[in-house]
Design a protein that fits this description.
The protein is built from nine helices and 13 strands. By secondary structure, it is an alpha+beta fold. It has two domains: 186 residues, Trna Endonuclease, Chain: A, domain 1; 83 residues, Arc Repressor Mutant, subunit A, CATH 1.10.10. A four-stranded antiparallel beta sheet has the order 2-1-6-7. The protein has a four-stranded mixed beta sheet with strand order 5-8-9-10, sandwiched between helices. The two termini are 24 Å apart. InterPro entries: TnsA-like. This is TnsA-like heteromeric transposase endonuclease subunit.
């Protein structure tokens, strides 16, 4: 874990250096964004297990992709939602979830080739709603770090469950993210059949599914589009080859249409565009 922490921390601060110069610059827009972020308090548990508390304007550059959950995942008899942990192949760490929808959202982030690490319940934001003279707070569901150093804050809530109060919180969170140069995403249920296909491929996300000789032959076979099973059988016994094939699809080294229909025998597989490798 120490080596991973060092790699992610180095990538984060190298990519964020330019952002810091912008915020420290003299432009009115940058100064306004800095003041806005400084009025928001953030509480989190850093990679060393130490609780931190301070203004977001001070801590926005911290590696939130490495933090521990700021609150516990509660489970009890009779609860309607399902809590658990998802093992993210991206950062080789567990991230928590409080529903199947959140689990699918974590899976989608893990599948995204731009994501290099993610954390669940990464921090607690607190601010004063001056219009209504009351204190507000919010804990986003996920924080993801992209390869270019960008931070992504994710809230998971299906559209039908976003009431007026939640919409206000999400809007404010989006404004906070914009102020410090992060992206904000509010996601809901994944569409079918993408959800089914993603859940299937996630079974083969672990590096143990990678067999180098088989993977090399699969890349050669699928240099031109071929049906999934026909291509696998051209390499060898399908029971031995298919796990490696699905792993390469998870890694985006091979590509397939995941949105039109469930994966099947005749699904066309081809080499992924070079820029996605």
């Amino acid at each position: 874990m120490t080596s991973l922490r060092g790699v992610f921390h180095a990538r984060t601060h190298e990519a964020l250096g330019g952002r810091a110069e912008v915020l420290v610059g003299k432009s009115a827009a940058a100064a306004s964004a800095w003041d806005f972020a400084s009025d928001v308090e953030v509480r989190f548990i850093d990679a060393d297990g130490i609780e931190r508390l301070g203004s977001l304007g001070r801590h926005w550059g911290d590696p939130f992709e490495l933090v521990s959950p700021v609150r516990k995942f509660v489970s009890f008899k009779g609860q309607k939602n399902f809590t658990g942990e998802y093992w993210a192949a991206t950062s080789r760490s567990h991230v928590g979830y409080e529903s199947w929808v959140e689990r699918d959202a974590a899976m989608a982030l893990d599948f995204d080739p731009a994501v290099i690490a993610l954390a669940s319940q990464p921090f607690r934001l607190a601010w004063t709603d001056r219009d209504r003279d009351r204190e507000r707070g919010h804990t986003p569901d996920y924080f993801a770090r992209l390869a270019d150093g960008t931070g992504v804050v994710v809230d998971v809530r299906p559209e039908g469950l976003v009431d007026e109060a939640a919409a206000e919180v999400f809007k404010f969170t989006a404004q906070v993210c914009e102020a410090v140069g992060w992206q904000f995403r509010r996601v809901g249920d994944l569409s079918q059949p993408y959800r089914v296909n993603l859940r299937w491929l996630a079974r083969y996300r672990h590096p143990r599914c990678h067999q180098a000789p088989v993977a090399d032959r699969l890349r050669n076979v699928f240099a031109e589009p071929l049906p999934l099973v026909a291509g696998a059988e051209a390499v060898g016994d399908r029971l031995a080859v298919l796990p490696v094939l699905f792993h390469l699809l998870w890694l985006h080294e091979l590509a397939v249409d995941l949105t039109s229909a469930p994966l099947g025998t005749d699904t066309m597989v081809h080499a992924a565009p070079r820029e996605r490798r």
